[in-house]
Amino acid sequence: MKNIITQFSRAFVGLLFIISGLIKLNDPMGFSYKLEEYFNANVLNMEFLIPYALIIACFVVIFEVVLGIMLLIGFKPKFTVWSLFAMIVFFTFLTGYTYLTGYIPKGESFFHFSSWQSFNPNNMKVTDCGCFGDALKLTPFESFNKDLILLIFILILFFNQKLINPLLGKTPMNLIVFAVYSLCLFMAFYVLQHLPLVDFRAYKVGTDIRKGMEIPEGAQKSVYEMVFIYKVNGVETEIPYDDVMANKVPEGAEFIDRKDKLITQGYVTPIHDFAIEKDGSDYTDSVLDEPKAILFITYDLKKSKKKGMKKLEELHKKALEKGYLVIGMTGSDTETIEQFKSEYELTFDYYLCDPTTLKTIERANPSIVVLEKGVITQKVHFNDIDKVNLK
């Protein structure tokens, strides 16, 4: 029985690590964005790691796939199991931290707080762990429980390492591990130089952006509660509307703000926070109504690749001859926009959009998105700009 449980755990953990790793390896840039969220000052406060997020992301996902293979074939079981154990402890800490911080009142830290309160999703800074990329979204609660279950299976392997026998000889296993590692490196390099092989995002080719923002008839609506924020003994504290109306505000409390607090999450549209603005005006509908439009996506001009920026103006001129509306979309400020337009002699206009939304639309910086009346017909990395199909 012990051997059966161990072998089942071996297969389950190995396959799960391979699947999870391959999904993230398909889009390491997306996983790096998720790591940046964790490294943010509002979460782990490790901002010095943000510049290295992509390198860390690539290392983690490749190691994840290789470990899964090593476990299945029984290659170096002691090293493999210890590595799996270390990874799952780390991931469980991250997902547990993300979930449990939803209990912490605003103004208090994770490790030092005076009182617990009901779970509050508004407090959470990371709403999805990124364990399966954009292919499968897990809530912090689901992610934490998934890692706890994995931890149990890995502990079974940890205490039964002697039952993890090699399936092949030393030389074949060395070759398999080397081949898997090499293929993973190649895949990571390829998708970073082009685009993910499979697009799991809400903005994949064929998507009607306008329909993606619509709420279906009869869909569950979100429920909100009005709350007031007061500073009580130097700490910002949320006080329910009913308590305020009943004069139950602590004496000496200082009013700070009022907000609508999410109580029950309703239907969330696949596409949200998509807006095209310029000079205080909204151009979303007018751009989506265009029969032919090209968007140059650059979420942050200061982080854009020079090689890509130099290619945009040439495509802009070709697209104009074909009757396309061509605009840039960025989250950068006006001063930066003017600086980059001058540096690269760009003659198209830049419109503003939420940078997080732009990072979701595309992974290259810059990248090209082709629209036909709001429907995405093509998405291209700047390295493949010559493949843009101008009709």
From TrEMBL:
<feature type="transmembrane region" description="Helical">
    <location>
        <begin position="148"/>
        <end position="168"/>
    </location>
</feature>
<feature type="transmembrane region" description="Helical">
    <location>
        <begin position="79"/>
        <end position="100"/>
    </location>
</feature>
<feature type="transmembrane region" description="Helical">
    <location>
        <begin position="175"/>
        <end position="192"/>
    </location>
</feature>
<dbReference type="InterPro" id="IPR009908">
    <property type="entry name" value="Methylamine_util_MauE"/>
</dbReference>
<protein>
    <submittedName>
        <fullName>BT_3928 family protein</fullName>
    </submittedName>
</protein>
<keyword id="KW-1133">Transmembrane helix</keyword>
<keyword id="KW-0812">Transmembrane</keyword>
<keyword id="KW-0472">Membrane</keyword>
<dbReference type="Pfam" id="PF07291">
    <property type="entry name" value="MauE"/>
</dbReference>
<feature type="domain" description="Methylamine utilisation protein MauE">
    <location>
        <begin position="3"/>
        <end position="102"/>
    </location>
</feature>
<feature type="transmembrane region" description="Helical">
    <location>
        <begin position="49"/>
        <end position="72"/>
    </location>
</feature>
<feature type="transmembrane region" description="Helical">
    <location>
        <begin position="12"/>
        <end position="29"/>
    </location>
</feature>
